[in-house]
Amino acid sequence: MTNDTTEIAYDNTLEHPVLHFTPEGFVHGLHAFIALAMLLGLPGNILVVLVHRKIATPTATDWVVFYLAVCDIVSLAVCGPSYMLITSKVWNNFMPSFFCSLHFMIMHTCYIASTSLITASAVIRRSVMITNQEPMSARKSKLFGAISILLAIGLGSPSFVLNKNSPSGYCYYDQQKAQLQTIVYGVYFLIILISNVVTCVCYLNIIPKFRNAARIAPTDLGNINDAFIRTRQAARKATICLALVFVVFLFSQAVPVIFMIILNASNHNVGVAMSTLILLLTRLHFIKSFANPLIYLWINSRFRNRARSLFQRSGNNSNITTIALR
Questions:
Q1: If 0-12 CB within 10 Å is exposed, 13-18 middle and 19+ buried, where does residue 281 land?
Q2: Cβ(114)–Cβ(195) below 8 Å
Q3: pLDDT tens-digit series, residues 209-254
Q4: Is Membrane included in the keywords of this UniProt record (predicted)?
Q5: What percent of the chain has pLDDT over 70?
Q6: Backbone dihedral region of 132: left (phi > 0), alpha (psi from -120 to 50 degrees) or beta?
Q7: d(C-alpha 250, C-alpha 321), whole Å
Q8: Element (H, E) at 294
């Protein structure tokens, strides 16, 4: 009787076929990908946070980037190890049901918070490129980011009811609450869909302004004109940087999440091939978590200079301490 219950519990989980019939090499490759994402993403996003702390007068965009990095740090630190425990079937041995709920709550919270923050960055960059000023002050942006995360925590809290360990110890959705799960996921779907539509519209409106990014300011003073051009070029690079962040987010997180929401609202009778695809898609969001700092380093020269000065200052402080000890 116990074996029958265990088998039914496994069969009702969407990823059961992939964990039991997919070649071990695929699972090992998935673990290597998550480990690489943690290895690159955690130091990279911590660097973003440290660089932000050194900015004397952060802008609204700086605060959005800061909160995005915080979300990625939490997602990598909590969901990365959890996914590895689940797919390696170690979770069933010792992890309590509370941690299953916590895993999904943090995952959903980071999804929603990242979505709203990326939309906010698009609105800010649109205003900068069209009106040459940010639509909100740095203080309001800081408050907006904090409120977005708090609201995302509230929206992710149903996971404590919807997600738990199955009778066999597997971490997944509670099948007895399928109707409530459909409602909650419908809310997630609307938030993600509307946010990404707004973000796309903002960046599409910006495209014509890129042609005028280096236009000559209406003044006869050469130094003022040069300063104006440098400011516009910096704004253009920052906008391109955040646009790339959105593109990575769209294909590594938004699209897979929407796909999963639609699938979870339907029946779960899928084969091994589809389960393997689902397992892969739902782990793609780790790409966004480690790609963002790399994009900042690649495109944003100001971020590179600030990061470089941060390490140089740390090196100088170490030298001073060493001399003092001598």
A1: middle
A2: no
A3: 766 654 544 555 555 556 666 777 778 888 889 999 999 998 888 8
A4: yes
A5: 77
A6: left
A7: 46
A8: helix 285-299
